[in-house]
Design a protein that fits this description.
Elements: E1 5-10, H1 17-28, E2 31-34, H2 35-42, H3 50-69, E3 74-77, H4 83-95, E4 99-106, H5 109-118, H6 132-140, E5 151-155, H7 161-168
Parallel strand pairs: 1-3, 1-4, 2-3, 4-5
Length: 172
């Protein structure tokens, strides 16, 4: 049996986080909590207001806690670009003796921007193309991992089941 794990996704919008998260969930059997999908389910026309974000992430964090309490691993698919958010979730995982891995999906800025703003695949960005100013704000605020965080880097241009399995030492 594999060790209970909480995977936190890190990377620019359009880097390939959702594609990687799906592969991790498929390979590991972890639950996939996908923030964009949940937002679309909860809010017909998302506004991204502070209040909406609080409501969404309170619910998502509750779901993570419920799965961890049941001994399940979780892939938490959202932009964990702030260390303080990763730290909060790492502490949550530790309450259930789950190890936390930050999965840093690295894609160069021009490629990630093009994917997120212009060439959004419908199966990974259910909310459609991202406005450029949102992409710039989010990408400019990415906080790289701190010493002490357990990090696995993935090349966002190489996301395949075999590549992800190899990098995360999972069975394809």
């Amino acid at each position: 049996m594999t060790e209970q794990t909480l995977y936190l996704m890190l990377g620019y919008p359009g880097a390939g986080k959702t594609t990687a998260a799906r592969e991790i969930a498929n390979l590991s059997g972890a639950e996939h909590i996908w923030a964009d999908h949940e937002r679309r389910q909860r809010f017909i026309k998302p506004t991204y207001t502070h209040q909406e974000n609080l409501e969404l992430y309170d619910r998502l964090n509750q779901k993570v806690e419920e799965f961890l309490a049941k001994g399940r691993s979780v892939v938490y698919d959202t932009n964990f670009n702030f260390f303080s958010d990763r730290e909060k979730l790492t502490k949550l995982g530790a309450r259930f003796s789950a190890k936390t891995i930050v999965v840093w999906v690295i894609t160069d800025k021009p490629t990630a921007q093009k994917r997120a703003v212009h060439d959004t695949p419908k199966d990974t960005r259910v909310l459609g193309n991202m406005p450029l100013e949102h992409w710039q704000r989010i990408s400019d605020n990415l906080e790289q991992p701190h010493p002490g965080e357990r990090v696995i880097k993935l090349d966002g241009t190489k996301i395949t089941p075999g590549y992800v399995a190899e990098q995360l030492d999972l069975k394809a």
